[in-house]
Amino acid sequence: MKLSVLTSNCLLCGDFTQRDISLCKACEVSLPRIESACGQCGIPLEKAATANALCGQCIQTSPAVDYTISLFHYENPVSYLIGQMKFQQQLSSAAILANLLCSEILDKHSDAGMSAKPDALLPVPLHKARLAKRGFNQSLEVSREIAKAMAIPLFVNKVERVKNTDAQTHLNKQQRLKNVKGCFNVISPSLARHIVIVDDVITTGATTNELARLLKTKGVEKVGVWSIARADI
Ligand SMILES: [Zn+2]
Ligand SMILES: [Zn+2]
């Protein structure tokens, strides 16, 4: 992935770096990566878990999402970088995070067990009121970088968010599931067989699973999720 700025300072420690991203190698290595996770919903698991392990929840009730890659725990400094991207419109932060996620996906794709490259990427849409307030959709910015690097078509304006679900941090799992019900609407009838939803942070997975459920009612056969971070709840 190429960036417009080739030499800059590390966004975390301030040291000069000549890498393609504004993050030095030492800071990159220190980021809180998820070592082992449920292959289907992405929830972090014990380190000893095998590559294709599933969590108890997914074994009990299979979610609409078929597979998930979440790169980091939602902790500092990843939460700082995501905050910079989301609220300060720091696009160099978006580029760093997309770049790291992209490398991880390419690594996993070269593993035999990983599923085929998707037909399209779908950034989780923001409600238009939220979009107007924030000015841009962070998931779309991350998706753009990945779509470019992996040559995957990007779905923009195919799905809209019709319910402005407020920050769900104070809701429990049941309330979240209820809150996201019917929050998306498919605008375009022409979708694809295999779609990957791209999100910045996954918390319970209720939102992405609702979107995946909806896509499957429209004939999509396989839905994956790629996210920068996963909150440990
Ligand atoms: Zn650094
Ligand atoms: Zn799971």
Features:
single chain, 233 residues, alpha/beta, Rossmann fold, two-stranded antiparallel sheet, 8 helices, 8 strands, binds zinc ion
In short:
This protein is an alpha/beta fold and 233 residues long. The protein is 34% helix and 17% strand.
Can you give a write-up of this model?
The protein is an alpha/beta fold and 233 residues long. It folds into 2 domains: 1-30, no CATH class; 32-230, Rossmann fold (3-Layer(aba) Sandwich), CATH 3.40.50. It contains 8 helices and 8 strands. It has helices at residues 25-29, 56-60, 78-87, 91-110, 128-134, 138-150, 173-180, 206-217, and strands at 8-9, 16-17, 67-73, 120-123, 159-161, 184-186, 194-202, 222-230. The protein has a 4-stranded parallel sheet with strand order 3-8-7-4. Helix 3 packs across helix 4 (91-110) and helix 4 (91-110) packs across helix 6. The longest helix has 20 residues, at 91-110. It starts with 7 loop residues before the first strand and ends with a strand. One zinc ion is lined by residues 10, 12-13, 15, 24, 26-27.
Architecture blueprint of SSEs:
Layout: E1 8-9, E2 16-17, H1 25-29, H2 56-60, E3 67-73, H3 78-87, H4 91-110, E4 120-123, H5 128-134, H6 138-150, E5 159-161, H7 173-180, E6 184-186, E7 194-202, H8 206-217, E8 222-230
Parallel strand pairs: 3-8, 4-7, 7-8
Antiparallel strand pairs: 1-2, 5-6
Helix pairs in contact: 3-4, 4-6
One zinc ion (ZN) binds at residues 10, 12-13, 15, 24, 26-27.
| Alpha plus pi helix count | 8
Which class best fits the helix and strand makeup? alpha/beta
Amino- and carboxy-terminal Cα gap: 32 Å
Fraction of residues in helices? Answer: 25-40%
